[in-house]
Design a protein that fits this description.
With 736 residues, this protein is of the alpha/beta class. It is built from 24 helices and 30 strands. The strands form eight sheets. Strands 5-4-18-17-16-6-7 form a seven-stranded mixed sheet, covered by helices on one side. A six-stranded mixed sheet has the order 24-26-25-30-23-27. Helix 8 packs parallel to helix 14 and helix 15 runs antiparallel to helix 20. The radius of gyration is 25 Å and the shape is globular. Bound molecules: ligand MGD (2 copies), iron/sulfur cluster and molybdenum atom. Iron/sulfur cluster binds next to helix 2.
Length: 736
Amino acid sequence: MQNTGTDTTAAARSATPVPTHCPYCALQCGMNLTPVRGGTVEVSERADFPVNRGALCGKGRTAPEVLAPGARLTSPLVRSGDGALVPAGWDEALDRIAGNLERTRARYGADALGVFGGGGLTNEKAYALGKFARVVLGTSQIDYNGRFCMSSAAAAGTRAFGLDRGLPFPLEDIPRTGCVILVGSNPAETMPPSLRYFTELRENGGTLIVVDPRRTKTAEQADLHLAPRPGTDLALALGMLHLVVAEDRVDEAYVEERTSGWEEARAAAMAHWPEYVERITGVPVPELREAVRLFCAPEAAMVLTARGPEQQAKGTDTVGAWINLCLATGRAGRPRSGYGCLTGQGNGQGGREHGQKADQLPGYRKLTDPAARRHVAEVWGVDPDTLPGPGRSAYELLDALGTDVRSLLVMGSNPVVSAPRAAHVEGRLRSLDFLAVCDVVLSETAELADVVLPVTQWAEETGTTTSLEGRVLLRRRAITPPEGVRGDLEVLHALAGRLGVEKGFPVEPEEVFEELRRASAGGPADYSGIDYRRLTEENGVFWPCPAPAHDATRPGPGLLAPAHHATPPHPGSPATADDAPVPHPGTPRLFLDRFATDDGRARFVPVTHRPSAEEPDEEYPVLLTTGRVVAQYQSGAQTRRVAELNAAAPGPFVELHPRLAARLGAAEGDPLAVVSRRGRAVAPARITTGIRPDTVFMPFHWPGEGRANTLTNPALDPTSRMPEFKVCAVRVEPVR
Ligand SMILES: Nc1nc2c(c(=O)[nH]1)N[C@H]1C(S)=C(S)[C@@H](COP(=O)(O)OP(=O)(O)OC[C@H]3O[C@@H](n4cnc5c(=O)[nH]c(N)nc54)[C@H](O)[C@@H]3O)O[C@H]1N2
Ligand SMILES: Nc1nc2c(c(=O)[nH]1)N[C@H]1C(S)=C(S)[C@@H](COP(=O)(O)OP(=O)(O)OC[C@H]3O[C@@H](n4cnc5c(=O)[nH]c(N)nc54)[C@H](O)[C@@H]3O)O[C@H]1N2
Ligand code: SF4
Ligand SMILES: [Mo]
């Protein structure tokens, strides 16, 4: 399918393809890899994986290009006396890191050591990184880029349902529901193969509502497109709930039987009259009424949110308001109905479950819970009292660099491009005593490091990821990595050894997974019934999946209604003997019998509208929102190295409405300066009627002059600590 530009001889072509998954987003499309000469692979269709049925977007198709030696790092780099990064041997590089971490700790204490992880890391890596921070470094200062991703939805989901799994149902349920509201999600660009689920929904007679300040490619597919001002989704959801009550559409029996807290939530919503909501959001009352009608008419319906409503300083309450709408209308924990969050990174789901988050232990356990500490400490063979408490959230950690936190290890993130108020964050990174970065490429963050370690990539290593559906998947190694490159697990093993911890950091992913299973057993995200053999035999297993022995005695809410679409017990299981335990089938659908709260009821949360952290004023009269384009991934560290993708999306731009452009005297392609209280970015104008006239949009994939995050506001959500990437006040000026 994809010609990687390398020699594809008949011999290489005849090799058996290795079934695996894409290195990029949370859809984790299945693909086959065939090794080809030149150390890379050829991607071909893998039709047996049901989620994408062979379809791939351009990023997945071209991913092998990043395996080529020209695109990636193949030797450790260390900062030399004259300030340049120069190649070095592994021992020298590892000794330098260990020595610097040791010195910082001796001088300032363990909490002066920071660790910054990523939602693209496999479960094994995320688990090992969290353990490394707590057990080897002894620091509380670990967090990761997932904080910038779906933390608001996770916080709201936990608050309402007692458990956060992005989608509590598989994607295959989407075409079978009656109406989907997609809030601030643009799957046509961010998960193209998933679009067919929404197309099929409409073919089946269902309706699609898209809520987005821009008429995106996704919005173009919708039956109804609502275009609110950025940052006002909370009011929009409350306005819809108000109408649900006013029009007598509340599912009273469901509310009575399956929820708590309705009276308070109802009272809060009733203060949001449709006309008031129209003034806040700019969405006309008739459109609001139409949305309520479409959502309430069918028997089943869903609300799916993504980064639009979540990346706000009130993201948790905003998602809470959409969940309230689902609960009032009886659309959660029922077949073909529910609220879900579309997780973003390749392992965005698993990456938030196994301990690289500031307040968390493996299995989605809480670091502050004494029982959780005891359980995990026992698996780790340490005294629970030695485990540090919760640390700072991602932005707060980056903001503390060079002051409280003096040495940092980055694994799987490029905050110089992706963090809010990025110029400030870049300054904090530069002020560190010591920075080590493990990456596959020389990212903008790696460029600032004292030591850079080159690590293996997806096609070169085995490991598990958990997709946006909560489906645990096995990625398989297809080729041998180049000389000079090592795996993240090997890095952690080597550093632990140098820091005096000889045991507990195996380099074999399966060995790490076996430990993760035990550490997660009995926790909310229980993986104990999953093993590598099962993952090679089945197309993934949905968590929670407790081990059989554990299943019977399992504490907790018992919400784990076995799959309605259960995967059959795996063939290799010893289920032939009479008393042999039957493997748990996994849990594609959550909450059908009860929610994961103590009383089994979903909790309404009373929320009310509040303005964004920064509202437009005379000096900064325009709203800036940010997001993605189809051909680039995240900070662009990987995809900016692929020729085909760069040709499709060569650089940043400022999307604006013709009316705003006319006011500025700007024509298509003219350079525009966008200025916020944090800084100034310059990029060419892209004029379109598909955006509100009071709003401009910039994608965030590029460093330098056009870096969108130079402008963004690090105002944090009080619960999730999510920064307000999706709205800040700017002024736009032509560059003469
Ligand atoms: N091509 C590509 N695909 C990706 C990624 C990538 O970088 N590139 N990244 C992956 C990751 S990690 C993630 S998290 C997902 C993200 O996937 P999405 O959430 O779909 O991506 P975004 O473009 O960030 O935001 C979605 C939409 O929110 C809209 N929006 C902006 N402000 C608001 C607002 O205030 N309210 C509402 N309702 N909408 C608003 C934007 O106009 C945008 O169209 O994509 C994943 N897939
Ligand atoms: N303005 C604005 N900013 C945003 C967002 C937005 O919508 N608007 N979205 C936010 C979101 S949702 C996200 S998820 C973040 C993402 O932002 P980043 O965290 O910067 O994401 P990536 O660019 O994927 O960075 C991953 C880095 O790790 C490397 N890498 C990949 N795989 C591995 C591995 O296995 N091991 C190691 N050691 N390294 C690896 C890659 O080469 C890359 O340099 O950006 C956030 N920033
Ligand atoms: S949609 Fe996501 S997982 Fe699928 S090929 Fe594209 S980047 Fe990869
Ligand atoms: Mo993300």
